[in-house]
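F.,

This is the one I mentioned.
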């Protein structure tokens, strides 16, 4: 990929009071018709406020990108209003995508400037945000992820911008590329921990970022599981290879004990009054990925309801999650009958404070997977 030097455009004019789209003044159009223009010159051009609104960033952030990296609007003629054409927006959208993937900002700007944007149909102009419009996340909003991967940095950047579409795209790609466990350890967990640290440092701010990120993680995990179930069903329904029906079917080989157990049911439930169920969502997706049959009951499952589910299904394992000490009630753990082979597995840091003490608490995804499939 060829790099080009960032350009140094003139400072952007403050066009807060200007209309979002350039239009010829009345009586100024040439009677012989407008001059010959390319498609990009004839397309509506956005003010900096409208461009920032469409990208989901603050106006100062957009000006900072132009000042530091030269990625901004390209005026048609000297002295003209600095408006953003479709080509300018395509470069900026590509730039935001690279930054969201964890590429360094300077490298993303150089790659965007070196890339010739593909021609696209003219998009309708975004409305200029009013003074009452909500402020979009922009400069000064960062989520350091420490030693996290580039995808974790990209995920944190998209989450703090409240860019739901890009957040989901990064999560989908990480799950497909790395699988559930690696995606959790290298991409998802570092970003979630960064949000938690930011919440502590800012005394309760960034709740909206945590909510959006958690929702996106849950949605991506559900997509991943739906795709896995669909792929398994398609594989099971695929016709046998040509000619296979002419031969007698060989007796199936006995499955190893581990595989036989992996296909048994695992119930996943939060303790009563426990509403943090994202860890169980991750565990459920990882179990399904390995061939198990998880059944997710979600948050705040009443004890009697969970016991009834255990009685009706006789699962191989039951995982009960407690995030905080006030939800860790040992009496909420279902105890299967003496003849049942079911094992009840307490998981989550809340159980560490339980009284009386609860043995065998699972604290990591790897330990929970091993216990469920053992």
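My design for it:
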């Amino acid at each position: 990929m060829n790099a080009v030097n960032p350009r140094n455009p003139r400072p952007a004019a403050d066009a807060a009071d200007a209309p979002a789209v350039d239009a010829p003044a009345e009586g100024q159009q040439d009677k012989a018709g407008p001059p010959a223009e390319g498609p990009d010159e004839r397309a509506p051009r956005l003010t900096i406020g409208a461009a920032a609104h469409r990208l989901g960033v603050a106006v100062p952030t957009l000006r900072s990108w132009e000042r530091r990296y030269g990625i901004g609007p390209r005026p048609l003629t000297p002295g003209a209003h600095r408006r953003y054409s479709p080509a300018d927006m395509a470069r900026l959208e590509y730039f935001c995508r690279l930054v969201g993937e964890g590429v360094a900002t300077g490298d993303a700007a150089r790659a965007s400037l070196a890339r010739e944007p593909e021609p696209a149909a003219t998009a309708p102009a975004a409305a200029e945000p009013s003074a009452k419009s909500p402020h979009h996340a922009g400069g000064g909003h960062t989520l350091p992820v420490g030693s996290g991967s580039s995808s974790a940095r990209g995920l944190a950047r998209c989450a703090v911008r409240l860019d739901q579409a890009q957040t989901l795209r990064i999560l989908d790609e990480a799950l497909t590329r790395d699988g559930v466990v690696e995606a959790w350890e290298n991409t998802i967990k570092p970003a979630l921990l960064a949000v938690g640290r930011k919440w502590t440092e800012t005394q309760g701010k960034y709740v909206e970022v945590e909510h959006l990120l958690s929702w996106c993680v849950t949605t991506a995990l559900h997509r991943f599981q739906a795709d896995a179930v669909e792929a398994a069903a398609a594989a099971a329904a695929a016709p046998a290879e040509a000619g296979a029906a002419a031969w007698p079917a060989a007796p199936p080989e006995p499955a190893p004990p581990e595989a036989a157990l992996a296909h048994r049911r695992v119930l996943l439930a939060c303790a009563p009054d426990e509403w943090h169920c994202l860890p169980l969502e991750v565990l459920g997706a990882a179990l399904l990925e390995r061939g198990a049959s998880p059944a997710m009951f979600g948050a705040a499952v009443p004890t009697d309801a969970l016991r009834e589910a255990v009685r009706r299904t006789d699962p191989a394992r039951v995982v009960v999650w407690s995030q905080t000490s006030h939800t860790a009630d040992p009496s909420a753990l279902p105890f299967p009958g003496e003849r049942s082979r079911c094992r009840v597995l307490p998981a989550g840091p809340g159980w560490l404070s339980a009284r009386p003490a609860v043995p065998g608490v699972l604290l990591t995804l790897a330990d929970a997977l091993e216990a469920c499939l053992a």
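Strands lie at 265-270, 293-298, 317-321, 343-347.

Talk soon.
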